[in-house]
# Entry
Amino acid sequence: MSESSFMLLRDIGKLVLSEQEEVHFSIDAYRGYRYVSVRRYLRTDNFVGPTRDGVTFTPEMIRALVPVLNQLPAEEKQMKLGQLAKLAKRAGICVVVTVAEFRGQRGLELRQWEQDKGFTKKGIWLPLNKWTEIRKLFAETLTALDEVPDIDF
# Structure
């Protein structure tokens, strides 16, 4: 396999948001590096597949994020709005994790921030009414990162 090729290593699971919308959690490889992808997918009459809404994490970022998420209350209404974590991706780029409100609904916002630009369009918002599923998907991702892949990448 070419070193610059994208490869799906492990499909972790899906967070179903509606009949036409879901968020996929996966472990992928690109240019010889593993990363975690959290991306929104659509299923409409005209389109089926991934959207631009999503963010990627290094394995180290997930190892830092899961304990932070595990400390949050089990009930959505008990969570306070605000920043939970700022996870370094590489020099000058990080992912900011925030509990935020959007259109009157609380959610977990995962948004990339760049030193020279500020917040970018790279990110995703996960509704907290699916909090149990979100926490479970991140925990399963962490477990899968510790497994040895079946294929070389």
Summary: The chain has two helices and eight strands.
